[in-house]
Amino acid sequence: MPEFLLKINTNEIIDRVRRVYLEESQSFHNSVSLEAVMQILYTNIQRARYERTILEMASAYAGYTFYIPAFLDFRGRIYRSGILHFHERDLARSLILFDAKEFINNSQFVLAPHVIQEMLYYYRAAGGFHYKSFSTNPIDSANMFFTDVEKCVIEEVGDIQKDSCREDGFCYDSAIVITSAKAKNPFQWMMFLWGIFNKSEDSNFICGVPITQDASASAYQIMAYLLLNEPMAKRTNLITNSEKPDSIADVYSVIMDDLKSFLNKEDLPDSVKELYNEYIDRKLVKSIFMPIIYGKTEMSTAGNIKAALKPYFYPAYKESAVLASLCFKFLREYYKEMDHLIRLIRLIGWFASTCDSNVVYDTQFFSTCQDFLVKDSHIIWVYDKIRKKKRMVTLRLSSDKRDRKKTEVSTFMNFIHQKDALIAMKVVLNMQGLNAPIYTVH
Fold first, then answer.
1. Can you give the pTM of this predicted structure?
2. Residue 151, CA distances (Å) to 176, 190, 263, 338 in order
3. Do 255 and 359 fall within a single domain?
4. If phi over 0 gives left and psi between -120 and 50 gives alpha, with beta otherwise, what is residue 388?
5. Which structural domain, as residue segments, surrounds residue 11?
């Protein structure tokens, strides 16, 4: 975010934005509301302040070695706590380095030249994935892409030394920033590229740069494992596809293709089919089918679809509701085994709640007790100092009665989340056995 957002007076800028908005034409007012403009302003100001805080904290901690604790929720998953968390936070992740000295000293291998070259190979490949995704021969492709960008930067800067700039201020750092314009994770991409130009001979730095690995649709992986579903296991990269051993599968792309094929067979007007085929993409499919397995209702799904399709056509009420209904029907028909597993585990939660009992999940590391209670409404009166009069406030407090519906819907979600957390914990244990540094976000 621009630095000037840190210095503006919030009250003054709000009044100025309001005046500018009111001076615009009616057509502008019809296309965007004042509330939406204000929301964007607040979001950008908050993001600028967060980024400044992260940078100041990184500067204060530079050179120190410390342990970052993980805070677990009742399912064992790491939740967001304060600013020291790394859930999809590109800036914070780009500033983290492991202390690799102990790992290097205790390693069973010697950092010979060929070992360092192999490490740089994987370093470049990991950096390439921060720019974009690679599906075919992913490691080789990512390494080649990163190497090509390296060469482009060198050609761009010409004879400029690493610690100097041209008369117009252009330098190595400028070239690196320019390459990040279209990167998937721009800050981490810049960190990897900066490291190759400035720290490629520093084994402590190369060994200390975290290599990020995201789960490949972990909920679908777990269901594929429990159901011994080989096709789904291949689609989620749980096992290697012998037909495409060097490719990374994308389950949501497969679901998207299956969904479009399913919709084309449905009794729908041709115009609606064309509409769905044009606007249904991987992003929309993921936003639909990831929440569905966690208990999202048809009505709530329709709301999400409407919000996703709103930029393309408006108001999309009917189309969104029809598509949501068809998505649930598609899941029941094309992925029957998974739908049956979800319903079965939910029924266990419903049965426990009906028997006036909580739902307990046990693992070798911890136990989870799920006990949702119905919330009753309680009305109280408070004195409003601004309006200088009493007003009514409704509080929702837990009762002694168990909430069967919420228990049923949440049982499968918490079951999958706990299995996911257990897998992550075992990965950490294995990494500790190798004396390798790791942080996990799940």
1. 0.79
2. 12, 15, 46, 48
3. yes
4. left
5. 1-63
